[in-house]
Amino acid sequence: MIKLNQLFAANRIHCFSTRPDQEYLSEEEYSLVLEFFLQMDFHLFYMKTCSYRGAQLSILDEKSLFCLSEPEARYDMSRCHQLSCCLCYPSYKLAYRQQQPIIQFGSHQQHTFINGYRSILNCPATCTTRNIIYVLTCPCQQVDYIGETNHQQHGNRIVQEFLLGKKNTAHIRNELPSFETLVKNDMKLYQHSTHCSSAIQWFLDENPHYWPFIPRKLTEADEQREEKELVYYIAEPDSFTYANDVPTPPNGYRFSDEQKNAIDQFFREKIYLNTPNLHLDLYQAAIVAILPEYATAAVRRFVEALFITHTETKLNTIGHLDQFVSTHTTNQTSAPMECEEWCRNLVRR
Ligand SMILES: [Zn+2]
Ligand SMILES: [Zn+2]
């Protein structure tokens, strides 16, 4: 485990130019991380020795790493009930969602990851508990991400910019993108939403002003008519300003003239100024583990990496520890994650 931490730390220093003292664990931190390490079973994370933040050892398996009894979920996350809390009171409609943005209010918390790995929450928590590890799952149920903070504004901004297209985006932004913006743009976590029709559906449910940017599937009648009209179209001077700069629709999809008019109107009326709702969660969140209050960022990142490795999350770029020990190069990052059209089967509701 020490070797793994050294490799992980060196990799992070290489990728992010951080300082060694921010990455390498101290002697005392090793014992804390080891406690997590030893309880990450092949199929299940179930912390039998947890005794902080009000967690109680059950008498049967007290202080033992091995237990004979079936693990049981005893803790959950409770509401903080502060009006400013975006988990207790999300600032968007939940009408089309099956669950709250964060799923474990009031239910004994277990989580099954997309690859089948399970975790049972190790202590009680509220919305304000710090030093937690959580998982974000896309509504398509195909990909997940383990992390500490979620920046909804980046996710929503990136979907918006994808729909508007590069040229139109440059037109509505007054300044050049910051370094942070560029870094977020490259994150798989945010990139995925622009290729995922389930995420786009959630985006449209909350932001119906963006429907004109969704190309429609061509019917056979459309195709025949288009063939006839093609000559006419080429001869006609182009009357649209912004609609010409939206991304080219996938094969078999197109924008109607009515949509193109609506797109031009969207820019003329500056609807982009008040939309989209940047607080919308494009992922479903669940807490999977809680660290002691005093745990440092280096500890949290390493425990996160243990989770990332066991759960094989597709949207994490950093933290797959098996890449350091495997003799084969697992090229899981280059596999195409989705090939279906992002605008397929969207419903106006
Ligand atoms: Zn709350
Ligand atoms: Zn998805």
Number of domains: 2
Number of helices: 12
Q: Biggest sheet, strands in spatial order? A: 1-4-3
Estimated radius of gyration: 24 Å
Which bin fits the share of residues in helices?
25-40%
What separation lies between the terminal Cα atoms?
A: 51 Å
Task: Kindly report the average pLDDT value.
Answer: 84
- Secondary structure tally: strands: 10
Are any ligands bound, and if so which? zinc ion
Counting helices, strands and paired strands, the structural category is: alpha/beta
Uncertain segments? none
Strand content: 5-15%
Largest sheet, in brief, is:
3 strands, mixed
The helix/strand series, from N terminus to C terminus, equals HHHEEEEEEEHHHHHEHEHEHH
Write down the overall geometry. elongated
What would you note in describing this structure?
With 349 residues, this protein is α/β, with parallel strands linked by helices. It folds into two domains: 185 residues, no CATH class; 122 residues, no CATH class. Strands 1-4-3 form a three-stranded mixed sheet, with no helix packed on it. It has a three-stranded antiparallel sheet with strand order 7-6-10, covered by helices on one side. Helix 3 packs parallel to helix 11 and helix 4 crosses helix 7. The longest helix has 16 residues. It starts with a helix and ends in a 24-residue tail after the last helix. It binds zinc ion (2 copies). One zinc ion binds next to helix 8.
